[in-house]
Amino acid sequence: GESVGLHLPTLSVQEGDNSIINCAYSNSASDYFIWYKQESGKGPQFIIDIRSNMDKRQGQRVTVLLNKTVKHLSLQIAATQPGDSAVYFCAEKEGADGLTFGKGTHLIIQP
Amino acid sequence: GAGVSQSPRYKVAKRGQDVALRCDPISGHVSLFWYQQALGQGPEFLTYFQNEAQLDKSGLPSDRFFAERPEGSVSTLKIQRTQQEDSAVYLCASNFAPGLGNQPQHFGDGTRLSIL
User: Fold this and answer.
1) DSSP conformation class of A8
2) In chain A, where are the structural domains located?
3) Interstrand relation of A100-101 and A86-93 (parallel, antiparallel or unpaired)
4) Is residue B116 a part of any domain in this protein?
5) Whole-angstrom Cα distance, residue A82 to residue B97?
6) Which residues, in sequence order, are bridge partners of residue B91?
7) CATH of A10-110, one of 3.40.50.300, 3.60.20.10, 2.40.50.140, 2.60.40.10
8) Rounded to whole angstroms, how far apart are CA atoms A110 and A92?
9) Which of A2, A14, A16, B68 is at 20 to 30 A from B94, Cα to Cα?
């Protein structure tokens, strides 16, 4: 199928290394942030979320950091595996409506 | 349990034809969202339902786009008089309920629409 990673920034990491994917968001009033993973031909898959009253949240092998001062979000993936290859999107939300997605980063895992 | 289901997975139509895309949200999910994803881009919000009420349709690109959710479960996105720029993947997402704080939206695998 067609790749959703065309024309996206690319991050290439060695298998087993840690990956850090960065995202700048635009709306200072956003109160909820979320990271999705999207594989080719699939819909976005939820990874981890964070509310604006937090600056860090950890999941299994993943950590999200939120810096509201500079409107920056990052996703850290520990011990990257081949199955982590995908396009990663950050998204933000203000209130009850839809998400606003960032441009996406294509993560490539080198063996 | 079953996730969000969308049909058809692929749809090819000639310019000027009308199309209808279906979304079955996760059972019990009150909120339903439609997004449009162009190739190489992130999804863009189209419209949002809470039960059968369409609370926000600010993202619909033109009056050729129409969405409904008459019984508060299954939703249909209709595009009339399709044009080539409508070619994209149309994603549906759902989550449990507003008023419980922010929750992740769960996405289907989308319908890839190609207009010839």
Assistant:
1) S
2) 10-110
3) antiparallel
4) no
5) 35
6) B35
7) 2.60.40.10
8) 30
9) A2
Closest partner residue to A89 (CB to CB) among B42, B47, B93 is B42
Residue B72: helix, strand or coil by DSSP?
Answer: coil
Task: Enumerate the residues of chain B whose CB falls inside 8 A of the CB of residue A2.
Answer: 39
Rounded Cα gap, residues A87 and A9, in angstroms: 9
Inter-chain CB proximity A104 and B41 less than 8 Å: yes
Q: A97 and B110 in contact by Cβ < 8 A?
A: no
Is B41 within 8 Å of A31 when comparing Cβ atoms? no
> In tens digits, what is the pLDDT along chain B, a chain of 116 residues?
589 999 999 999 999 999 999 999 999 999 999 999 999 999 999 999 999 999 999 999 999 999 999 999 999 999 999 999 999 999 999 998 766 668 899 999 999 999 99
> How do residues A60-109 score in pLDDT, each as one tens digit?
999 999 999 999 999 999 999 999 999 999 999 987 778 999 989 999 99
Pick the residue of A27, A38, A57, A106 with the most B CBs within 10 A to test the interface with B by mutation.
A38
Q: Which of A87, A97, A74 is nearest to A25 (CA)?
A: A74
For the record, the structure tokens of B85 come out as: 């720029």
Please tell me which residue of chain B has the smallest CA distance to A47. B104
Cβ of residue B25 closer than 8 Å to a chain A Cβ: no
Please tell me the distance in Å from A91's CA to the nearest CA on chain B: 9
Take residue B99 and report the two structure tokens written for it: 């008023």
Pairing, β A10-14 against β A105-110: parallel
